[in-house]
């Protein structure tokens, strides 16, 4: 879509908190109006609608819309938004009791091209793993993501993260 439309979508999202708890439907209506301007069959509409449902507490309604956006080629239109969709879909899957699907969706993202969403991938994947009782793996991901941001102890934290999932045996390995 054009920059004007993107700017209006960004403005709508910037105003989300102004709707309050009772304004969720009103906010989703604003997003629906913007989506109505798009050509039918494209991936941006379902993506924005999924985000709106998700951000207003309805992961169950967001899941099929994220899947639709990805199936319609969101990755070709915007690789960045496609990665966001995968992160958000995994979170919604976890919220709806399907954490394993979230793990399967996000695990390939660990080796995808790096961008500013890398830490979000790891954070959501860690939550999915924790929901499956795999807390050590989740903690390892979170510590690994945190380590580069620390003013000191980066190397130590990265090693601790690695050791959390290392094979049982000598903890110094």
Quick tags:
single chain, 173 residues, mainly alpha, Serine Threonine Protein Phosphatase 5, Tetratricopeptide repeat, 10 helices, disordered C terminus
Please count the beta strands (DSSP E, at least 2 residues each). Answer: 0
Which spans have pLDDT < 50 for at least 5 consecutive residues? 168-173
The largest sheet, given as strand count, sense and whether it forms a barrel, is: none
Percentage of residues assigned to helices: 55-70%
Superfamily at the CATH H level? Answer: Tetratricopeptide repeat domain
Succession of helices and strands: HHHHHHHHHH
Radius of gyration: 18 Å
Structural class: mainly alpha
Terminal CA distance reads 52 Å
Summed over residues and divided by their number, the pLDDT gives a mean of 94
Secondary-structure topology with pairs:
Elements: H1 3-14, H2 24-35, H3 44-55, H4 59-71, H5 74-77, H6 79-95, H7 99-106, H8 118-131, H9 135-146, H10 154-164
Outline the structure in words:
This protein is mainly alpha-helical and 173 residues long. It has a single domain, classed as Serine Threonine Protein Phosphatase 5, Tetratricopeptide repeat, CATH 1.25.40.10. It contains ten helices and no strands. The chain has helices spanning 3-14, 24-35, 44-55, 59-71, 74-77, 79-95, 99-106, 118-131, 135-146, 154-164. The chain is elongated.
Provide a concise account of the structure shown:
66% of the residues lie in helices and 0% in strands. The protein is mainly alpha-helical and 173 residues long. The C terminus is likely disordered.
